[in-house]
Here is the input.
Amino acid sequence: MVDKKCLTVLKRGVQYWNKWRKKDRYLQLDLRGINLSGEILLGINFTGVNLAGAILVKCNFCGANFDGANLTGANLSEANLSGVSLCGVNLTGAILIGTNYLGAESTSSNWSLANLTGADLRVVDFARAELSGANFIGANLNGANFIGANLTRANLQLTELEGAKFNHANLVQANFASANLTSANLKQANLSEANLTQAKLSKTSLTQADLTEANLSQANLTQADLTEANLSQANLTQADLTGANLSQANLTQADLTGANLSQANLTQADLILAKAWNLID
Here is the structure.
């Protein structure tokens, strides 16, 4: 239920709203279910505001502050959130299809089950964010920061992730099929049972990453760094590992059938019970 006083103040414009907010920063504001579709609210202060279920389609929130806000189930499809601060925000189940987040900050936020299909998320800071089950299909995440984030069972099919940072991230059962992870950093990430079929992982850092039972069939791992990575029982059939560094990697029971290992470094790698039929070396 939208608070009538809040609505009255909001109608007077962003400048008046922000000035009013400064008078009482700890006021609990309720804008649940409000419909602001198409509104231009540049730099608005929505810190801590309850916007659960709000309809914010095609809104322009460039430079706004949503820190600590409740956006559970909100619809922000095609909204402009470039340069927005979303730290500590709850976006569980929110709809964010085609949304622009260029340069937004979202550390420690909850995006569980959020729909971010086709969103522009370049250089967004998702450090330590909760993203389990989130849908990123076709999103542009080049240069995004996922350090320490939880992306368990997240769907990242066909995403652009060049230069993205996933250090120490939880990526268990995440779906990266046909994703572009060129030059990304996945050092010490947990990718057990992840789907990386036909993913582009050229020059990617996977040092000490856990890839137990991961599916890397037909993946491009040319010049990738897999030093001390755990690839036990991983599926690497027809993967291209040309020039890859697999020194001290654990490839126990891995399937390397038809893989290309030309110029790969396998120094002290553990290949016990690995399948290696029709290798290209």
In short: The CA atoms of residues 161 and 181 lie 5 Å apart. Residues 1-117 form a domain with the Pectate Lyase C-like fold (CATH 2.160.20.80). The two ends are 66 Å apart (CA to CA).
